[in-house]
């Protein structure tokens, strides 16, 4: 790996390299007993609390230039910084119990800006039933916010990326592709509604939905779609050893986003590859689908297949197209890369 730059491999490959370093030779997590899930395999790490509960922990860093479009308000930057972390807590089926927010900023940042940032963070935390319990302040060339979220869930309700079985139904909450369309609209200076822009600027962690899904007993695996539906399906596939068949016609996409996409390829790009929607991707035991149908805004988009069948999209004409393994990746020469 000497002389190879991180930009040539990207975030996913670098996580694999680091996760190996953090594992003991026998493949288990280094350190003490009680690490149920360690680095690299799920949305959060999971620690055994020795009773009926477990603790879930995640951290996520956002930067002014790479994550906050110029049009975002400081309140929205704060909301998003909390939301990206709380979404990972939701992805485990857990209830959030606290957020620690570290903020690095240039010394000439206005106090009013930092207050608006903090109010946005607090609003998102409160929306999810939790609060900010600490943080850190530092001088930094560029606004950089690193959140750490903690959550709690009963061991028998914990939902992992592992657990999906062939025959399970695949579902998503909300809409897919809205944040991607918003990003494109901003970059090409085209108008879109506030609903679409807010999907990018104020992602809503699916905390309540996640808790109801975890309590239903019908869900076999769950994660969030921060890096895009396609990348999430590949992450699921790796952990659960299943394939997926997704029906293009079933993808929940806002009418406005369909109209905004100039052609079917562009629409697929938003819905599958751009990311930023922070919805939940869920697999459900088909015998138990009735238990979840009415608890939240959820759409069946396809089913789990054998691993060997790969990850495919069934077009409206019933053609099978391979879904590519790409999405929103940090540390790439370009954030959205076609070759990974
Ligand atoms: N520097 C690191 N050291 C150890 N583990 C890491 C590191 N970076 C990421 N991971 C782990 O890799 C996994 C995936 O991380 P990633 O940040 O992509 O989370 P995600 O849930 O897939 O995405 P998002 O944060 O966008 O929701 C997680 O288990 C995370 O803890
Ligand atoms: C200027 C600008 N460009 C792109 C995006 C989109 N974006 C930022 S973070 C993220 C999800 C995963 O991030 P992470 O892997 O860090 O958790 C996505 C899709 C944005 N909000 N602003
Ligand atoms: Mg996640």
Main sheet properties:
7 strands, mixed
Q: Mind telling me the CATH class of the largest domain?
A: Alpha Beta
Give the % helix. Answer: 25-40%
- Biggest sheet strand line-up: 8-10-7-11-9-12-13
Number of helices, counting only DSSP H or I runs of 4 residues or more: 11
Which regions have little confidence, pLDDT < 50, spanning 5+ residues? 335-340
* Binned strand content: 25-35%
Q: Give the SSE string.
A: HEEEHHEHEEEHHHEHEHHEHEEE
The CATH topology of the largest domain is given as Phosphoribosyl-aminoimidazole Synthetase, Chain A, domain 2
- The tally of beta strands, per DSSP, is 13
CATH superfamily of the largest domain: PurM-like C-terminal domain
Shape: globular
Separation, N- and C-terminal Cα atoms: 17 Å
Supply the CATH architecture of the largest domain: Alpha-Beta Complex
- The residue-averaged pLDDT reads 95
Bound molecules: adenosine-5'-triphosphate, thiamin phosphate, magnesium ion
- Cα-atom Rg, whole angstroms? 20 Å
How would you portray this structure in words?
The protein has 2 domains: 32-156, PurM-like, N-terminal domain (60s Ribosomal Protein L30, Chain: A); 160-322, PurM-like C-terminal domain (Phosphoribosyl-aminoimidazole Synthetase, Chain A, domain 2, Alpha-Beta Complex), CATH 3.90.650. Mean pLDDT is 95; it is low at 335-340. The longest helix has 18 residues, at 74-91. A 7-stranded mixed β-sheet has the order 8-10-7-11-9-12-13, with helices on both faces. It has a 6-stranded mixed β-sheet with strand order 1-2-3-6-4-5. It has helices spanning 6-21, 64-67, 74-91, 111-127, 178-187, 194-201, 207-216, 229-240, 255-260, 264-274, 290-293, and strands at residues 35-37, 45-48, 53-63, 95-105, 132-139, 144-154, 169-173, 219-224, 242-247, 280-284, 298-306, 311-314, 320-322. The protein is of the alpha+beta class and 340 residues long. 34% of the residues lie in helices and 25% in strands. The structure holds adenosine-5'-triphosphate, thiamin phosphate and magnesium ion. Adenosine-5'-triphosphate binds at residues 15, 18-19, 22, 39-43, 60, 88, 224, 226-227. Residues 43, 88, 91, 223-224, 226 line the site of magnesium ion (MG). Residues 42-153 form the PurM-like N-terminal domain. It catalyses: thiamine phosphate + ATP = thiamine diphosphate + ADP.
């Amino acid at each position: 790996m000497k002389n190879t730059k991180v930009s040539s491999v990207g975030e996913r490959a670098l996580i694999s390299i680091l996760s190996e370093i953090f594992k003991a030779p026998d493949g288990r997590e280094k350190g003490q007993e009680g690490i149920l899930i360690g680095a690299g395999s799920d949305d959060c790490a999971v620690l055994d609390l020795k009773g009926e509960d477990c603790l879930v922990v995640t951290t996520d860093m956002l930067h002014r230039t790479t994550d906050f479009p110029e049009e975002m308000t400081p309140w929205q930057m704060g909301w998003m910084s909390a939301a990206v972390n709380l979404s990972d807590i939701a992805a485990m089926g857990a209830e959030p119990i606290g957020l620690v927010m570290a903020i690095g900023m240039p010394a000439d940042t206005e106090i009013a800006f930092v207050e608006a940032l903090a109010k946005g963070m607090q609003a998102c935390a409160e929306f999810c039933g939790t609060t900010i319990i600490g943080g850190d302040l530092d001088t930094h060339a560029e606004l950089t916010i690193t959140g750490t979220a903690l959550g709690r869930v009963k061991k028998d309700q914990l939902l992992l990326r592992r657990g999906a079985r062939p025959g399970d139904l695949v579902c998503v909450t909300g809409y897919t592709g809205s944040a991607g369309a918003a990003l494109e609209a901003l970059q090409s200076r085209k108008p879109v509604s506030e609903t679409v822009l807010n999907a990018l600027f104020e992602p809503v962690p699916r905390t309540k939905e996640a808790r109801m899904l975890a309590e239903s007993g019908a869900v076999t695996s769950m994660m969030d779609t921060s890096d895009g539906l396609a990348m999430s399906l590949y992450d699921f596939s790796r952990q659960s050893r299943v394939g997926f068949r997704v029906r293009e016609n079933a993808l929940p996409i806002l009418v406005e986003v369909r109209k905004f996409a100039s052609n079917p390829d562009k629409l697929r790009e938003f819905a599958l590859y751009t990311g930023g929607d922070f919805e939940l991707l869920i697999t459900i035991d088909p015998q138990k689908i009735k238990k979840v149908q009415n608890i939240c805004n959820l759409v069946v988009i396809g089913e789990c297949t054998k691993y060997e069948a790969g990850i495919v999209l069934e077009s409206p004409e019933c053609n099978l197209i391979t879904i590519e393994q790409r999405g929103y990746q940090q540390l790439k020469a370009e954030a959205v890369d076609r070759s990974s």
